[in-house]
Structure formats: structure tokens, C-alpha cells
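User: I'm curious whether this sequence folds into something compact or stays loose and floppy. Could you predict its structure so I can see for myself?
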Amino acid sequence: MAEQLLLDLPVRTALGRDDFFVSDANAAAVAGIDAWQDWPHGKMVLVGPEASGKTHLAHVWAAMTSARVVEAETLAEVSPDDIGPALVVEDADQIVGDAAETALFHLHNAVLGQGGRLLLTARADPARWPVSLPDLKSRMQQAGVLKLQGPDDALLSAVMVKLAADRQLALGPDLISYAVLRMERSFVAARQLVQAIDARALRDKTRPTKPMIATLLAELAE
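Assistant: Here's the prediction. I'll summarize afterward.
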């Protein structure tokens, strides 16, 4: 074969506190997570765009509080009897249907009824969620909101370093700086570029270079 066979193997994502980089773009959200014992009404919604670090920060909080992490799509399968005093619900704004809404309502009451804490992640504020159950809607709108902003240069650089490290891909500071100055300023773009660099380096059996990154940026733009 002229090109190395590439396998789409799963990537191990580092989700520890030491792997979460704090900058001006997310410092307020991190401070709010650290102050979890003082959350109003015992609940908080962590809002941010795709790949902005919501899941990472939610897992940091889960580690601090021994919280269970539940995906929105599996809510109907979770019994309130199996939930402790801390719970994370991922992608809460993606909850659709009476069964899922009812499940979240009961989980919410089970956690807060024992004086616990509830953290939900979403891409939009609770007021914009397509919730039809009135009791659930009112409870969600009582929650505080922490927002992860779009990345500044420091955060975008750190995210690229982390994404590369998760793939055991060596990207030096010169390559990171080169990419950050030329790429679309979003977390999704950073993830796509690192994936593309990794694939191209494996295919060509070579180390990443500035010309390689320039070519990939042009291809991604198309």
C-alpha cells in the first residue's frame, strides 16, 4: 500500500484538574465550580459552545464531589434511588420527550431533596431549552448559570497542546503559535486541526511541520 493504513482508534482524553487550563475566557466559570457548596438552590448550569471544556470541567467537579455523571440520552434509564448527593447531567439542553423530562424532574428532586448538588452542562441557557414540563422548566430556570467563553490566544494554545498530548502527538510551541495565528478561533477548529495533523503525520510517517499545517488549514477551509 502506498499510504499507511490509518485506524480510527479511540483517543484517551485527559480529564483531570491539572489538565484544565485556566485563562480569562473561563476563569469565572472555574471559580463558580470551585464554589459549588454555595450554589443558589443547590444547582448550576455550565454553558458553552461545542468543545469548550464543559465535559472536562464537569468531570473535575465530579471528582471533587464524588458525583455520578449521566448523559441526557440515558436519563430515563437512571433510577432516583441510585443517585447520591451529587449529580452531573451532560447535554441537558438536548433532553427531548416526556419520559426524559420526567426523569430529569425526579432526579433533580432526589438530589436536592437530600441537600445535594446538581450540575448540568448545555450549549444554551435554561430559558432557551425546549422543555415542555412546567414544573421542570421552572426548576431549571432557578439554577445559576456559569458561561465558558470563546478562547483567547492563551486558552486556544493550551487546548491544542492538550489535544495533541491526548493523541501522543508532539507539537512544539513554534507550531502551536503558527497554527493559532492562522486558524479559525474556535475549539472545534482546534480539534479538527489536531486530528488532521495527527492523521497526516501518521500517513506520511513524518513529524508535523509548518508547511504541513499550512496545507491542512487550507484543506479544512475548503
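Summary: The chain is about 45% helix and 10% strand. Residues 1-15 have pLDDT under 50 and may be disordered.
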